[in-house]
Predict the structure.
Amino acid sequence: MSFWNWATTLGGLVTRLPPPEPLPGPTTLYAAAVLKVATQNIGRGESLGNNSGPDLDAYRKGGAGGAWCAAFVSHCLEHGAKGVEMPCPVKRSHRAKKLFKNALAVGTRVERPRPGDVVLWHRGAKGAATGHIGIVSRVEGNAFWSIQGNKGAFPSKVREYGSEIGEALLLGFARLP
């Protein structure tokens, strides 16, 4: 019999302990490893010019230039997989909306984020082809924080930003396998 179904008698009354609240941390070892990589990259980013520098070259694996938020998240997904000794389940992309779609192909869309989930926003006008992506780092009520790259003016660095669930340009969350 599980601990949570264990009944005790108190003064002739039988009471059941309530089920535990969901843990506030990542849902899988892979998600925890992805979050760890993202956290280790805080402070890295642009250094030689807008959208350029050795950190960005590493995120892009020597690939094309341009916006680098998706390259950063791809880097976290790949290195997180190495940290738990598994092949990366999410196909790399340097386009935020495509990377989110790739994460959903192996994971699950969720309404309430947990640390280690992938988060996606529209970038520019709602419905635009461009997007912005990050890794959820913590959640408190309807507020959540995520680690992102390529947000803000040069020299943009990887850092943690706060947001609210339900904000206008937020597209959703993908829970990693």
In short: The first strand starts at residue 7 and ends at 10. The chain has one domain: 23-175. The domain at 23-175 is CATH 3.90.1720.10 (endopeptidase fold (from Nostoc punctiforme)). The mean pLDDT is 88.
